[in-house]
Write a structure and sequence with these properties.
alpha/beta; seven-stranded mixed beta sheet; 388 residues
C-alpha cells in the first residue's frame, strides 16, 4: 500500500460549483500552448459541456496536443463515438475507457485536467451543466449541483501530469521506452519534495499498485483526528474498515459529521440508511442534503487536512473504479472548505436515532435485504475485497 507523498510550495484554489469551475477551466484551455490531458467520467451534450468541447477543439486547431479520456458508461456509447470523431477531426486525440467491458467491470471515474505541465484541475465535477441531472440532461435540478474542484499550480502538477500521461499511454499501445520515461519522470517529481507551505499530494485508486490508497488516506486522517472530521459524499456504502474508522473516531470524542446526498438513487439511499443506526449510536452526526444533487466528495479533518476528488464512499469507488483525489495540508484551504461543508450542513436535514425507532418492521427488513444484496454483489466483483 502506497502512502501519500506530499510536496510543498503549491498554490491550490478551491472552486465551488460549475459557476467557478468551468470559466476557469475554459480560460486555461484557451491559454494552452503545448498540451492538454483531460479525463472525465461524463462528458455531456449540454451548453456548458459544449463550451468545454469547443475550447478543446480550438486548442487542437491551433496545434496544441489534446488528449481526452472519457468513460464508455458515463458518457454513453453513441455520444462517446461522436465526441471522439469531433476531436479527431481537428487533430486531437480521444480515447474511450473500457468499451463493452473489455477490461472487466472497472470504470474511469477520475475528473482531472493538466495543461502545459504547469497547471492542473482536479475534483468531483464531470463535464456537465450544474443545473442538469447527471443521468438525464433533459431534467433540470432545483438548484445548482453541490460540487467542488481545485485549480493547482506548483510542484504537485508534475505528479498529476505523470499520472495522466501514464493513464493515456496504458489505454493505447505503451512501449517499454515510454514506460521507462514515465518512471523517470515520477522519480524526478518525488525528488522535489519539501516541507514548504501548502503541502499537497495526489492519491489515486487503481487495480494495480494503488488498490486501497484513497481509503487508507481517509483512515489515517480519521485515526489521527483530535477534534473534528467533516465529510461530505453523495453515495455512502463503505466497507467495514471505513465504517469502523468513522465509528472509532466518534467514540473517542471526535466530532464526526457526515453530509450525505440523497434522492438521486432510491436503492442507494436505502443502502446508506442501513448503516445509520450503528453510526448514530457511536456518536456520528448524519445530515441528509436534499436541496439539490450533492455530488462533492470532500472532507476536512481538524482544520489542517482536507481532500477534494472523485472518490465516493461506496464499493465501486473504493474497490473497483479508477479515482483521483488531492489531499491538502494547509489551514487556510481547510478552513475555506470547512465553511462550504458547514453551509451544506445548515441547509440539510439531520437524522436522529428516534427517526429509526418509528420505522415499520417491513421497512427495516427492506434495508437489511438491500444491504445484503449490495454486499454480496460487491464481494462477487471484487473477489471479497469490498468487505475490508
Amino acid at each position: 500500500m502506497r502512502h501519500v507523498s506530499f510536496v510543498g510550495q503549491n498554490d491550490i484554489q478551491l472552486l465551488h460549483g460549475g459557476a467557478e469551475f468551468f470559466p476557469t477551466l475554459i480560460a486555461a484551455i484557451d491559454a494552452a500552448q503545448i498540451e492538454i490531458y483531460l479525463e472525465t467520467y461524463i462528458f455531456s451534450s449540454d451548453k456548458t459541456a459544449d463550451s468545454v468541447k469547443h475550447a478543446l477543439t480550438r486548442a487542437a486547431t491551433r496545434g496544441v496536443v489534446v488528449n481526452v479520456t472519457i468513460d464508455w458508461i458515463g458518457t454513453g456509447h453513441l455520444f462517446s463515438k461522436a465526441l471522439a470523431q469531433e476531436i479527431h477531426a481537428v487533430g486531437g486525440g480521444c480515447r474511450i475507457f473500457n468499451p463493452w467491458f473489455f477490461r472487466g467491470i472497472a470504470r474511469t471515474h477520475r475528473k482531472l485536467c493538466v495543461i502545459d505541465r504547469t497547471l492542473a484541475f482536479l475534483g468531483g465535477m464531470n463535464i456537465v451543466d450544474d443545473l442538469h441531472d447527471d443521468d438525464d440532461p433533459r431534467l433540470l435540478l432545483p438548484a445548482p449541483r453541490w460540487d467542488f474542484g481545485v485549480r493547482i499550480e506548483g510542484p504537485l502538477v508534475a505528479t498529476i501530469h505523470w499520472e495522466a500521461a501514464l493513464h493515456w499511454a496504458r489505454m493505447g499501445s505503451i512501449s517499454w521506452r515510454t514506460r521507462w520515461a514515465t518512471f523517470k519522470e515520477q522519480r524526478r517529481s518525488r525528488a522535489n519534495e519539501d516541507h514548504g507551505p501548502m503541502l499537497a499530494g495526489l492519491v489515486v485508486r487503481d487495480n494495480l499498485r494503488n488498490r486501497r490508497t484513497i481509503q487508507h488516506a481517509y483512515l489515517k486522517a480519521l485515526g489521527g483526528a483530535r477534534e473534528s472530521a467533516l465529510l461530505a459524499n453523495p453515495y455512502f456504502a463503505p466497507g467495514r474498515k471505513m465504517r469502523n474508522g468513522l465509528a472509532s473516531a466518534a467514540k473517542r470524542g471526535i466530532k464526526v459529521t457526515l453530509l450525505l446526498g440523497v434522492g438521486q438513487y432510491k436503492f442507494q439511499d436505502v443502502i446508506a440508511r442501513s448503516f445509520y443506526p450503528k453510526l448514530l449510536k457511536c456518536g456520528v452526526r448524519i445530515i441528509e442534503y436534499r436541496k439539490t444533487q450533492l455530488h462533492g466528495k470532500v472532507a476536512v479533518v481538524d482544520d489542517h487536512w482536507a481532500t477534494v476528488g472523485s472518490s465516493n464512499y461506496d464499493g465501486f469507488s473504493l474497490f473497483v473504479n479508477q479515482e483521483a483525489n488531492v489531499v491538502v495540508r494547509d489551514a487556510d484551504f481547510a478552513q475555506a472548505l470547512r465553511q462550504h461543508i458547514e453551509q451544506g450542513v445548515a441547509e440539510g436535514v439531520e437524522v436522529s436515532l428516534q427517526d429509526f425507532d418509528n420505522i415499520p418492521l417491513h421497512k427495516r427488513m427492506f434495508y437489511k435485504v438491500a444491504y445484503l444484496i449490495y454486499k454480496n454483489f460487491l464481494r462477487l466483483i471484487t473477489w471479497g475485497k469490498s468487505a475490508e
